[in-house]
Design a protein that fits this description.
Layout lengths: L1 H42 L9 H10 L8 E2 L10 E6 L3 E6 L2 H5 L8 E4 L2 E5 L6 H10 L12 H11 L4 H9 L3 H12 L7 H4 L2
Antiparallel strand pairs: 1-2, 2-3, 3-5, 4-5
Helix pairs in contact: 5-6, 5-7
Length: about 200
């Protein structure tokens, strides 16, 4: 009887040990899962009502106001209050903020910088088209926009550059521009475009 009694106790202890071990394993598995979820929640950027930098870039690109690729430069602006994401293109810098007020701090039309909702843009090329940039952002979608020019002289330079005209007519049109339009015309329509034929570029 002692043998049977001790076997029962041994089986009972083993069963009890297995139940304790299984319940301990189950609770250990749950704890890391919860902490992983909490860590993900902490790392996620705060979502706000408003636009995203990616959406603003897409709308401007589809409207023909931006033709270059976007580069994420968010890390360069770490510490900017409320900054979510920053994109850089040849034509414009786009910054997405958590709140409209954060973007509004940088609004300065005299410096070609504008805020629409929670998006701030700095127009580097195409400053004469600022109105079109704003129309697109205010509408929250791509639009068919007509290119604006500061003057007929600027339009002439843009047309000549677009038609791959000879060097001399372009230079004459450029020097006929009013002084206050030369810099923006150069940046918008002439930089990174060849005025020389391919045979001259080889020299």
């Amino acid at each position: 009887m002692n043998k049977n009694s001790s076997k029962k106790w041994l089986v009972l202890l083993l069963a009890l040990g297995m139940v304790i071990a299984l319940s301990a394993c189950g609770s250990k598995e749950e704890q890391p899962t919860e902490s992983k979820n909490e860590a993900v929640k902490v790392d996620e950027p705060k979502k706000v009502e408003g636009y995203t930098a990616d959406d603003a870039f897409t709308w401007l690109e589809e409207s023909g106001l931006v033709t270059s690729e976007a580069e994420d430069v968010t890390t360069k602006y770490e510490g900017s209050e409320g900054l979510v994401k920053a994109l850089k293109t040849d034509e414009v810098d786009i910054m997405e903020f958590e709140k409209d007020e954060n973007a509004a701090k940088y609004h300065n039309p005299d410096m070609n910088s504008y805020a629409v909702k929670n998006i701030y843009i700095l127009i580097k090329k195409g400053q004469d088209n600022a109105e079109n940039f704003l129309k697109v952002l205010e509408s929250g979608k791509a639009l068919t926009v007509q290119t604006s020019y500061a003057s007929n002289e600027q339009k002439k330079v843009a047309d000549l550059m677009g038609s791959d005209a000879d060097f001399l007519p372009v230079v004459e049109a450029y020097f006929a521009l009013p002084k206050d339009q030369k810099s923006s015309t150069w940046d918008t329509y002439m930089v990174k475009k060849s005025l020389l034929g391919p045979e001259l570029l080889l020299i």
